[in-house]
Amino acid sequence: MKYLWLSIFIPVLIWSAALPKDPFTWFLEVFPVFIGLVILLLTYKKFPLTSLLYILILIHMIILMVGGHYTYAEVPLFDWIKELFDQDRNNYDKVGHFAQGFIPAILAREILIRKHIVQGSKIWLNTIILSIVLAFSALYELIEWWVALAVGEDAEAFLGTQGYMWDTQSDMGYALFGAVVALILLAKIHDKQLNLMMEYSRA
Predict the structure, then answer these.
(1) Contact 21/158 with Cβ under 8 angstroms?
(2) How far apart are the C-alpha atoms of 109 and 103, rounded to whole Å?
(3) Which of 67, 102, 136, 161 could be joined to 178 by an S-S link, Cβ 3.0–4.6 Å?
């Protein structure tokens, strides 16, 4: 699993870093990927994750690396979609914010269940997961604001607002929507993998 994961991750990272449209924006967008990679490497033996979660994290990293390479406002496929459907902006950033809810929801779910932080009540489990996702999304929006204050116009591509006045609110909305969709679609699959992991650890 880890070799397949790395065989996908490394080529995409190399491609993303090769002549990005804006090197400073690339650094800002891809920096979370490096943080995530370090955390995965440090926890791989002590706290290995389910294969589902490793796959989701890889997908999220790829979304970030694609956005970093082109900048979120200029990803070619979504430029084509913009023209085809006569949209007024490139909406690849909304894919990123949907993923910012979808993947962290399963990550939070795994930690909460495996560490026995929430037991017995799925309602409380899901409520806490959605709260964590919204908190994470809000923190990211604050970081974008702080970066914009620090570097001024150089952060415009990083912010990716494209003149949309409700960009911050819609970003958080997409993250919340992503989290809800993840919990609806993946909870049963995730539970099966968690049960298999627990059985394996007992053996």
Answers:
(1) no
(2) 10
(3) 102
CA nearest neighbour of 155 among 31, 67, 25: 25
| pLDDT at position 159 over 70 | no
Q: How many Å apart are CA 80 and CA 89, to the nearest integer?
A: 11
The count of residues in the chain is 203
pLDDT in tens, 171-189: 899 999 999 999 999 999 9
Q: What global pTM score does this model have?
A: 0.89
d(CA 172, CA 169): 5
- Those residues with Cβ within 8 angstroms of residue 40's Cβ, 6 or more apart along the chain or in another chain: 49, 54, 57
Alpha-carbon distance 21 to 132, whole Å? Answer: 33
Q: How many helices (H) and strands (E) does the chain have?
A: 8, 0
**Nearest in space to 179 (alpha carbons), one of 47, 58, 60:** 60
Task: Measure the CA–CA gap between 45 and 49, rounded to whole angstroms.
Answer: 9
Q: Is 19 helix (H, G, I), strand (E, B) or coil?
A: coil
Q: Which of 132, 96, 142, 139 is nearest to 111 (CA)?
A: 132
